[in-house]
Design a protein that fits this description.
The structure holds two protein chains of two kinds. By secondary structure, chain A is an alpha+beta fold. Chain A has two domains: about 190 residues, D-Maltodextrin-Binding Protein, domain 2 (3-Layer(aba) Sandwich); about 200 residues, 3-Layer(aba) Sandwich (D-Maltodextrin-Binding Protein, domain 2), CATH 3.40.190.10. Chain A is about 40% helix and about 10% strand. Chain A is built from 19 helices and 15 strands. In chain A, the strands form five sheets. Chain A has a five-stranded mixed β-sheet, covered by helices on one side. In chain A, strands 11-8-12 form a three-stranded antiparallel β-sheet. In chain A, β1, α3 and β2 form a beta-alpha-beta unit. In chain A, α10 packs parallel to α12. The longest helix of chain A has 30 residues. Chain A starts with a helix and ends with a strand. In chain B, about 70% of the residues lie in helices and about 0% in strands. By secondary structure, chain B is an all-alpha fold. Chain B has a domain of about 190 residues: MetI-like fold (Orthogonal Bundle). The radius of gyration of chain B is 23 Å and the shape is globular. The longest helix of chain B has about 30 residues. Chain B is built from 16 helices and no strands. Classes of the chains: A alpha+beta, B mainly alpha. At the A-B interface, α1, α4, α13, α18 and α19 of A face α3, α7, α9, α14 and α15 of B.
């Protein structure tokens, strides 16, 4: 009898084990945080990915809780549910403290791109259930508002109407363009992330180089570095946002002329091919390696005491990359203005990140939702000595001054990076539109994998264009290639 | 079990103990319901989390988002997706590599453990099983470190044997099916070794003795006596492993995130279904892919069952 029973028992046990392990696996996949290397580089990396601990500065910065342009005293009340990332949590808590009449429900979520589809999943579930939507969401993925504003999600409310034109006009035009979907402002950027040229001033002086002003000078210097100081680098091409770093700056139409469900992806445009040709020799000679600054390999080879980063083309929030990720020694780095293409004028640059705030169309308390976003973007600005110091250049113009003062007074920098960052914020090329599909992984899995295997960027561009087109079509876009 | 080697001594021994070879094919003339209490606690879960979702997926796969019957339209659309072919090709290469490794090494190791029963056996059995105690995602994380030459304790092997100096080189697209198969083997094989070892223990020692008396050596006993007698267990392992293999998700998903997108988030068929459902809100096409996987799993199971006589009751 016992012998007869062992079989069903074993089968049941195996079935249970199989089931539980597969379920466990699925859950784990959706909720397990990725390992360190990816923590800061998301599919659509935003400055929010950068840790909040931007180098602290002496306590000379004014706290500036409210600037002159801040709105009138809020009368918000009622219930308010906000979804924020960990970096924005102090902001939400500070709002709660300042507004006891508002009963807040603060939810933090894995918005750093590792949970790339978490918001899509949630919004669809709320839509299906017909309830449960939060009033406000902060996303670290800059393209989130684009799909949120459209079917089948239909989540984002009109931000322009919520904040009023007198407030939104304080954001740069390129920032507003990034948040405009089909003519409606559907989000507002928490911070700006213009791409600048980061420079290791100590090494530049030591090697007797001058800071390049044009892409061509930068390339010439790269060739020189490869022969005179092999091992040192002037950039990196292995980020998922590699195309945003280089091609956006040179006005290459990889996601342009978006109107409704149409997009232009033209990798044969001269602005694209000339940038690819400019980068190719540098990738080959090792001065622009196909590695990500967030990979352990990169930190080991170029960061910390190795100190081999001579220059880096990167966004404003790279402040924390040098200080925290690469641990570049103090007193070496600073920011220079974005590079110019030959004599082309005006100079344009790209933007990588700049997390947006979104108000829900389904909000039952739109007044408090708008008040919260207004407060978060125009009032909240802790001093640079505070651990809650904002991680990126505020999008709201009047708040930039106090924030930059904090950066200036920080003795980590070899020279004040603030002027270059501030100037670059107004140079972002507005011809690069955000799209609903994730374009950055396409760069990683078609271009970077090829570069690692020793292929040239120019030879990979057709495949890159094709893969971008496929991703666009899968998301319902009609693609124009010229 | 008509092909079991039957020397006179074995036949006699079998008769003596009244055994029927092949544990899975035992005749059940009575007591079919005696197993029920053991299965009962699991039944509600099976229905709620297994059967009902399957019916739901089948319904979704053949209907539109508005609930109208659309025949095979969802299957055509999902099949026409530009990532569909790649995803299934990846999964098949991976499953093939993994199953072959599983069959050869699991059966081999179980036979070796069994033929050298000693104190060391218990230690090895434990060692083999141990990685399986790690949850799926955690074991992938372990491998992410193993494969990263910067931090890997086996970096000298990566450097000198494979010529890999960077993590991005380790996870080059061509390596992935093998890497995932290695991870799956490492976490899953131990459990199967223990199961097969258990199966080997059900072979009466008289049979082995009889075979030895008839002049069979260790090899012959392993290959011609033990292996045929646990054939059904091996078939059972292959069916279950085939199904889990085609449903690969956790490994490529985590490597996708860890590699900053070098590995596409639609590398495997299950990932593609996940992306279709949650990124594009195309639940019906996602369900169609899950049904594709179900059909493939069923076909494989039917083939294996009929070829190995898994459910044959008599010998």
């Amino acid at each position: 009898m016992q012998r007869r029973l062992w079989l069903p028992v074993l089968v049941t046990a195996l079935a249970l084990a199989g089931c539980s392990s597969s379920k466990k696996s699925t859950t784990a996949a959706s909720s397990t945080p990725a390992p360190a290397p990816s923590a800061a580089a998301s599919t659509t990396a935003a400055p929010a990915s950068a840790p909040a601990s931007t180098p602290a500065a002496p306590a000379s910065t004014p706290a500036a809780p409210a600037s002159s342009a801040a709105p009138a005293v809020s009368t918000a009340s009622g219930n308010l549910t906000v979804w924020v990332d960990a970096v924005r949590l102090p902001d939400a808590k500070a709002y709660q403290a300042a507004h006891p009449n508002v009963k807040m429900n603060i939810v933090t979520f894995d918005g750093d791109g590792n949970g790339a589809t978490s918001l899509q999943t949630k919004i669809q579930l709320w839509n299906k259930a017909g309830s449960g939507w939060p009033d406000v969401i902060f996303s670290e993925q800059v393209n989130d508002p684009v799909w949120m504003a459209q079917a089948p999600f239909n989540f984002a409310a009109d931000m322009g109407a919520a904040l009023g034109k007198s407030v939104t006009s304080q954001w740069p035009a390129a920032s507003l363009a990034q948040c405009t979907v089909n003519g409606t402002l559907v989000c507002i950027q928490d911070n700006l992330a213009p791409v600048v040229l980061w420079v290791n001033q100590k090494l530049m002086t030591q090697f007797g180089y001058t800071v390049p002003k044009t892409w061509q000078d930068w390339q010439a210097l790269g060739n020189k570095v490869a022969t005179e100081h092999p091992g040192y680098i002037i950039g990196a091409s292995g980020e998922s946002y590699g195309a945003w770093q280089y091609f956006w700056a040179n006005q290459c139409p990889l996601e342009s002329n978006v109107s409704g469900q149409k997009v232009t992806i033209n990798v044969t445009d001269v602005h694209c091919t000339e940038m690819a040709s400019l980068l190719d020799p540098l990738i080959k000679n090792g001065t622009v390696p196909p590695l990500s600054v967030f990979s352990p390999d990169f930190a080991k080879k170029y960061g910390g005491t190795a100190d081999k980063v001579l220059m880096m083309v990167g966004p404003a929030w790279y402040t924390s990359v040098f200080h925290d990720t690469l641990k570049t020694p103090s007193g070496e780095m600073t920011a220079a203005p974005p590079l110019q293409w030959g004599t082309d004028s005006p100079v344009t640059t790209g933007q990588i990140g700049g997390g947006p705030w979104i108000i829900s169309k389904h909000s039952s308390n739109p007044a408090a939702a708008a008040d919260f976003v207004l407060w978060s973007t125009t009032v909240f600005n802790p001093p640079s000595t505070s651990p809650d110091y904002r991680p990126g250049l505020p999008g709201y113009g009047p708040l930039q001054g106090p924030w930059l003062t904090g950066l200036t007074s920080n003795n980590y920098w070899a020279a004040d990076p603030a002027p270059a960052i501030k100037a670059a914020a107004s140079q972002i090329w507005s011809g690069w539109d955000l799209v609903t599909y994730p374009d950055q992984p396409v760069w990683s899995n078609t271009v970077v994998t090829g570069l690692v295997a020793g292929k040239s960027l120019s030879s990979l561009m057709p495949a890159f264009g094709k893969a971008l087109g496929q991703a666009a079509k899968a998301a319902g876009y009609t693609v124009a290639t010229s | 079990m008509s092909d079991t080697p039957r020397t006179p001594a074995i036949a006699q021994a079998t008769r003596k103990r009244g055994l029927r070879a092949g544990g899975l094919g035992r005749k059940r003339t009575q007591g079919n319901w005696r197993g029920l209490p053991f299965v009962l606690p699991y039944l509600p879960f099976l229905i709620v989390f297994g059967v009902l979702p399957m019916i739901y997926a089948l319904t979704l796969a053949f209907t539109s988002s508005k609930g109208k019957f659309v025949g095979l339209s969802n299957f055509n659309q999902a099949g026409g997706d530009f990532r569909f072919g790649d995803a299934f090709a990846h999964v098949f290469v991976y499953t093939a590599v993994w199953l072959v490794a599983l069959m050869i090494f699991v059966v081999g190791l179980a036979l070796m453990l069994h033929s050298r029963a000693s104190k060391a056996t218990a230690t090895f059995r434990f060692l083999y099983y141990m990685p399986g105690a790690l949850a799926g995602a955690a074991s992938v994380l372990v491998w992410l470190f193993m494969l990263d030459p910067t931090v890997s304790p086996a970096s000298f092997i990566l450097n000198h044997v494979f010529g890999i100096h960077l993590f991005v080189e380790a996870i080059a697209p061509g390596h992935l099916p093998y890497i995932f198969a290695m991870i799956a083997f490492w976490t899953g094989a131990g459990g199967w070794i223990v199961v097969l070892y258990g199966a080997l223990n059900t072979i009466p020692s008289e049979l082995e003795e009889a075979a030895r008396i008839d002049g069979a050596g260790a090899w012959t006993i392993a290959l011609r006596l033990k292996l045929p007698m646990i054939r059904k267990w091996v078939a059972y392992m292959v069916i279950l492993s085939f199904a889990t293999g085609t449903q690969l998700f956790v490994e490529p998903q985590l490597v996708n995130e860890a590699s900053l997108g070098h590995v596409p988030d639609t590398w495997s068929a299950n990932q593609l279904a996940y992306q279709l459902a949650f990124r594009y809100a195309r639940f019906n096409e996602a369900a169609a892919i899950s049904v594709d996987l179900l059909v493939i799993g069923l076909i494989a199971a039917v083939l294996i069952v009929t070829r190995t006589g898994l459910f044959k009751k008599d010998d």
